[in-house]
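Table S2 (continued). Query chain:
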Amino acid sequence: MLDKSHKHVSCDTCGARKSSLFGNFCDHEVSQVDENKSCAYYKKGQPIFIEGSFPRGVFCLNQGKVKIFTRGDEGKEQIIHIAKEGEIIGFRAMFSGEPYKVAASTLEECNICFIGKEDFLNMIDTNPTLRNGIMKELSKELGDRAIFITNMAQKSVRERLAFALLILGDIYGDEQINLTREDMANFVGTATETLIRLLKDFKDEGMIEIHTRKLEIIDNEKLMQLAGR
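Corresponding output:
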């Protein structure tokens, strides 16, 4: 559980920092980040930024998970990414100088640190480690997004669900996958009713176990074969 009474998290003791873009920073660089950030507790379902607004800075996830999504013409969400502890979100729009093309909101209780635009850009100008890390992150994201789009466009709903469950398994790690059926359907790109039916099929076929709302992957190999990975 998050300690709601103490929102500030020191970068020096942050467990998520080692897997973030700040993971290889020296003590001086860590102190610089610490001085330029603020931390806040977010409730489940709370917006972080909305589509069409202008970026004021970047958000680093200390604890919790966040969905990045767009909305279709009828208001239906399409989740394009789920960010986990250690990820920095919001810097892509900041570089372009354009409004956010996506929105972000919390999937669970989160502790999130914020670094203002000017401070973050100054860090990039003066820190080659951060600059190179961001370039690698953007390159990797481009490749990952191309694979994601191809899979979602060319595979059946059943195959897409298998592919999505493998991604979610990587995101949640040792935890059980804890996502509402509606959010999972919006990640897969299908109707909630179709998702529920397919999850039951996957359970009957021994690929997953359902614990009320949470899911547990039982047979990773079967999912990989079905997803074509």
